[in-house]
Amino acid sequence: MKQVIIVVGIAVLIILVSLTILSIESKSDRQDELDRVVSAAVKQTVKDSQVEKQMNVTSDKEMVAQFIQNMCTSIKSDGDLQIEIMGVDYKEGMLDVMVTEQFLYPNGKQGKITTRKCAIYQ
Length: 122
Description:
By secondary structure, this protein is α+β, with helices and mostly antiparallel strands.
């Protein structure tokens, strides 16, 4: 009986440690993905807005829409995204955004990560 209790205790401990590691790794992976995707989307949007004789981006609103499309087609995670436009100027090729993602950890708690990226066409 004593051995059964020890084995069950060790199994519970292993499960708790595994969930903790999984939660930490989950947040780190999501942060890396969000940073990468937002950075690439901002750069691509600014680059597209400054192409000669292009017809895709002819206003600030279209530039924001292009950014959202670029970002949403690239991101793979399943969190809820909130996008705040801090500054935009399609004529000068400037875009500054802050993206917040809310997600659930494997244990059911809610997590939140934020990244802010800015790009200016040179």
